[in-house]
Specification:
The protein is mostly helical. The chain has 4 helices and 2 strands. This is Ras- protein Rab-28.
């Protein structure tokens, strides 16, 4: 497993880098050229999956995430209802 520096200067573990079909530099270039956000997640471990969804939701809602929210979102045991609550979303399926 190698390390890769994320967009917020955090070091992210990258598993199976040698099997990556689209290399990181091509991925970043595509995202920059097409004004897309860039996210690296692990399907194997689930690393950064919640953070990816949280950042996308924050971008859509024009909400600025603070460092504490980002660090908390990297906790894989965080229940989805609590995560939605952090963004002011109702994910329980019930109306309020």
């Amino acid at each position: 497993m190698s390390d890769q520096v994320g967009s917020d200067s955090t070091v992210l573990p990258v598993d199976l880098e040698h099997l990556r079909t689209v290399k990181a530099d091509r991925h970043h270039r595509f995202c920059q050229e097409n004004h897309c956000s860039s996210h690296f997640v692990s399907a194997k471990t689930g690393d950064s999956v919640f953070l990816c969804f949280q950042r996308i939701a924050a971008d859509i809602l024009d909400v600025k995430l603070n460092r504490a929210e980002i660090e908390q979102s990297q906790n894989p045991t965080l229940p989805s209802a609590m995560a939605g609550e952090m963004l002011g979303l109702n994910l329980s399926g019930t109306s309020e």
